[in-house]
């Protein structure tokens, strides 16, 4: 389901992940709402998956909307690597 190099954004509530999906769809940004991978902890059980090529558009749209994910992971070498947390600053570009 999550391909090598894809990003997974985790939110702390079902409301926030559904709002993120709505924002991204309204901006025609490519992404998928997926069940959170078992390897990752997600309070709401859902996550947003997007390709590396869409990273800037996804993260900019979320940042501009004030809807920063709790944590973002990237799938590398079959594992999930944390790219940052909301508290650390996710590296989202404005």
Count of folded domains: 1
- The CATH architecture would be 2-Layer Sandwich
Class per helix and strand makeup: alpha+beta
CATH topology: Alpha-Beta Plaits
Order of H and E elements: EHEEHEE
What is the name of the CATH class?
Answer: Alpha Beta
Largest sheet: 5 strands, antiparallel
Average predicted local confidence, pLDDT: 89
Structure write-up:
The protein has 94 residues and is of the alpha+beta class. The chain has one domain: Alpha-Beta Plaits. Helices cover 24% and strands 28% of the residues. It contains two helices and five strands, in the order βαββαββ. Strands 2-3-1-4-5 form a five-stranded antiparallel beta sheet, with helices on one face. Strand 4 and strand 5 (79-85) form a beta hairpin. The longest helix is centred in the N-terminal third of the chain and has 13 residues, at 14-26. Residues 6-73 form the Putative Se/S carrier protein-like domain. Pfam families: Se_S_carrier. This is DUF3343 domain-containing protein. It comes from Geomobilimonas luticola.
């Amino acid at each position: 389901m999550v391909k090598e190099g894809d990003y997974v954004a985790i939110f702390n509530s079902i409301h926030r992940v559904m709002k993120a999906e709505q924002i991204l769809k309204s901006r025609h940004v490519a992404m998928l709402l997926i069940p959170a991978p078992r390897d990752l902890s997600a309070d709401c059980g859902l996550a947003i998956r997007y390709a590396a090529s869409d990273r800037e558009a996804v993260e900019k749209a979320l940042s501009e909307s004030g809807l920063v994910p709790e944590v973002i992971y990237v799938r590398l070498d079959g594992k999930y690597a944390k790219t940052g947390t909301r508290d650390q600053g996710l590296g989202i570009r404005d």
